[in-house]
Amino acid sequence: MLPERFRDDIPQPLAQCPPSSANLLNALVNIRPAHEQVSRRSAAVTQTLRYFRSPLNAFRLLRQYFSTSPPSHDPEELVDFSDLCDGHGESSVFDCRPDISATVELPPDILLSEASFGPYPNQSSFLLGEWYWNGGRQKSHEDFRSLLNIIGSADFRPEDVQNTKWRAIDTKLGMNDFDGDDDGTNEWFDDAGWRKSAITISVPFHKQAKHPGAKDFLVGFFYHRSLTEVIKEKLSNSDDNRFFHYEPFELLWKRHCSGEEVRVHGELYTSPAFQEVHQELQASQNEPGCDLQKVVIALMFLSDATQLTQFGTASLWPAYLMFGNESKYRRCKPTCNSCHHVAYFHGVSFKLECVLEAILTKSLSSLTALKIFFENTWDEGLGSR
Amino acid sequence: MTAHVRREILHAQWAIMLDADFLKIYAHGLVIEGSDGVKRRFYPRIFTYTADYPEK
Predict the structure, then answer these.
(1) Residue A299: DSSP 8-state
(2) Is there a contact between B41 and A72 if contact means CB atoms under 8 Å apart?
């Protein structure tokens, strides 16, 4: 056998956690001071809390769960070799990008109604529109071939596309629920779509001001999605749900010689913070009449203002949401689509900055200036409706 | 004044995001059936917030 320094160990997933009693440590809570706090809070629950361990893998890593029963769902089972390394042509289970090259073959007996093409009046128009918008910005030979396929197909009817109102369709495609429709549909749709809400802030005026006290002003409009609906959508997606870690565990590395165990940090669901919140939730009262397993959904928000142009001041301030129950290796794969847009923050606009500047330099009385600004914003917001 | 307005605007937007629906599932959980066909009660918790703070 080669000396260790010449060996190149290939990545290996964590050993699976069999629900057998062979790996059961039966260790009681109170021997671990770290959990004493929890045990005192909920004497009833801790009676049955135990450690469940997985065997060591090739890198001497093991998982240790601390709960009443072995984990009910193990996402590590799904991880295979191709998920652990890059550069292989093989597809991995993490790779959930839909295969766009595959064309959908519809059974000939299914008669598609005209309504099924959305804003497009018929199949021929839809295919052309789809080719235009989804084909990428630069035209390639491949794009050209797919265009030829569309118009060369026996199903393509030139008379269908002659009277299509492309401009109106594009406007409709770009519309949001809150833009409202001609038929007066409501902006408060119950889905994970975008919403538009007015932002009101309270501005205090000092005692010597003409109108002292706090006054409410409308600053602008906030574009955001319902967090509840985003979470619902995420959890209902079975592709994502399979990879969700419902229960935290400790990742431990066992030393070769001494057998000493060292905690390994890396994922949110192996962190002490997750463990703590998880135990706290388990110790809390159940919802009346409900004995379902209680699971923590770890939300990770991130936002950073982005300059949109090299020159000029156009910028956006987006906020994203990621789920800490998913592995970071999954979160960092763009094809997994696990980073969710949740909002575009509204900053202090250039106009408002000018108004504030005017107040500071005392060229305008503060209340008048703010009133002018906020009333303008109100008009702009209402104007489109 | 600008700092006050900046802070108020950001907080007002977070107040809109963390709406009544969210607070309800934060406290009482959200029952969803997983890919294994088992129903569980999910409680969202905010762990990290990585962001630029508009102090100036």
Answers:
(1) E
(2) no
Instruction: Please give the Cα distance from A238 to A295 (Å, whole number).
Output: 16
For B1, the closest of A201, A305, A356 (CB atoms) is A356
Digit-coded pLDDT (tens) for A112-124? 555 577 778 888 8
The β-bridge relationship of strands B39-51 and A293-303 is parallel
Percentage of chain B lying above the pLDDT 70 cut: 93
The Cα-based distances of A144 to A122, A125, A134, A327 in angstroms read 22, 17, 13, 39
C-alpha B36/C-alpha B11 separation (Å) is 39
Q: Residue B25's closest chain A neighbor by CA?
A: A228
Interface contact flag, B25 A231, Cβ < 8 Å: yes
Q: Cβ separation of B52 and A238 shorter than 8 Å? A: no
Q: What share of chain A is helix, strand, coil (3-state, %, to 5)?
A: 35, 20, 45
pLDDT tier at B24 (50, 70, 90 boundaries)? Answer: very high
Task: Please report which helix (H) or strand (E) contains residue B31, including its range.
Answer: strand B30-33
Token couple for A44? 């009833």
Predicted-complex ipTM score: 0.90
Contacts of A342 in chain B (CB under 8 A): 17
Which whole-number Å values give the CA distances from A189 to A72, A195, A197, A244, B32, in the listed order? Answer: 35, 8, 13, 28, 21
d(CA A331, CA A320): 12
Q: Does the predicted model carry a pTM greater than 0.80?
A: no
